[in-house]
TrEMBL record:
Entry GO MF terms: ATP binding; ATP hydrolysis activity
Superkingdom of source: Bacteria
Pfam family, one: ABC_tran
Similarity comment: Belongs to the ABC transporter superfamily.
Organism per entry: Acaryochloris thomasi RCC1774
SMART domains: AAA (SM00382)
Keyword check for Nucleus: no
InterPro entries in the cross-refs: AAA+_ATPase (IPR003593), ABC_transporter-like_ATP-bd (IPR003439), ABC_transporter-like_CS (IPR017871), Metal_Ion_Import_ABC (IPR050153), P-loop_NTPase (IPR027417)
Its EC number(s): 3.6.3.-
Main enzyme class: hydrolase
Annotated protein name in UniProt: Zinc import ATP-binding protein ZnuC
PANTHER family in alphabetical order: IRON TRANSPORT SYSTEM ATP-BINDING PROTEIN HI_0361-RELATED, METAL TRANSPORT SYSTEM ATP-BINDING PROTEIN TM_0124-RELATED
Domain ABC transporter: 7-239
């Protein structure tokens, strides 16, 4: 799949010492569509997003957005890491976390503008977390924490949204909120890329999929990717999934 003004991955490879984590990955992520990265444990799903953003080194490949190297325009990207990578004991309130999303717009050591405060407040309202704005982040449930970090990403007013397993271990209410917002962001023309951890009914919320197992198995629409042969190559054995 090729698309204008989108994210393009060309022959991306990632190697840890002598082990190939990803090999020769080439695919496109189109704006206006919600794209999921799926595959078995250890397939390189999170590695793909991190390598695209320059968070880990790649051994080969080129990542471009709108025709230019992505790492040269990271101010256009909002990234939400896995919850396990966040220090939930850090003494910050919900409002503190949201306002961190406005630092790039404001600049370090400068006072937040009225515009930034309004953007942060609107993001909190959008994820239904405004009433928790003064709550320490560590006192929230997993689903609430995920909504806060989604609100932080929204407050950044980015063009590209990359989320690493935002649906892992969350409640159904939060899952619905997250998917609704991601679909709205895509409908508004943003590029939205999500690492997803299972093949249950939630898979039907994605427009496009990237199926990995250290190499690219398939990319395209759900119908194109979720074939028996592709799933067999990726997962092996009997695979149960919700085709939708």
């Amino acid at each position: 799949m090729n698309c204008a003004n989108g994210l393009t991955v060309e022959q991306l490879g990632v190697q840890y010492r002598m082990v190939k984590a990803l090999s020769d990955i080439s695919c496109s992520i189109c704006p206006g569509r919600l794209t999921g990265i799926i595959g078995p444990n250890g397939a390189g799903k999170s590695t793909l997003i991190k390598a695209m953003l320059g968070l880990i080194p790649s051994s080969t490949g080129l990542i471009t957005y709108d025709g230019q190297p992505l790492t040269a325009q990271l101010d256009r990207v909002a990234y939400v890491p896995q919850r396990s990578q966040i220090d939930w004991t850090y003494p910050a309130t919900v409002w503190d976390v949201i306002m961190m999303g406005r630092i790039r717009k404001t600049g370090w050591f400068r006072r937040y503008s009225t515009v930034s405060r309004r953007a942060a407040a609107a993001a909190l309202e959008r994820v239904d977390m405004a009433k928790y704005r003064d709550r320490p982040i560590g006192q929230l449930s997993g689903g609430q924490q995920q909504r806060v970090f989604l609100a932080k990403a929204i407050s950044e007013e980015a063009d590209v949204f990359c989320l690493d397993e935002p649906l892992a271990g969350i409640d159904k209410k939060t899952e619905a909120i997250v998917f609704n917002i991601l679909q709205e962001l895509a409908a508004d023309g943003h590029t939205v890329l999500v690492v997803h951890h299972d093949l249950g009914q939630a898979i039907t919320n994605f427009d496009d999929l990237i199926l990995l197992n250290r190499e690219l198995i398939a990319s395209g629409t759900r119908k194109e990717v979720l074939t028996g042969s592709n799933l067999q190559r990726a997962f092996g054995g009997q695979v149960n999934f919700f085709a939708g």
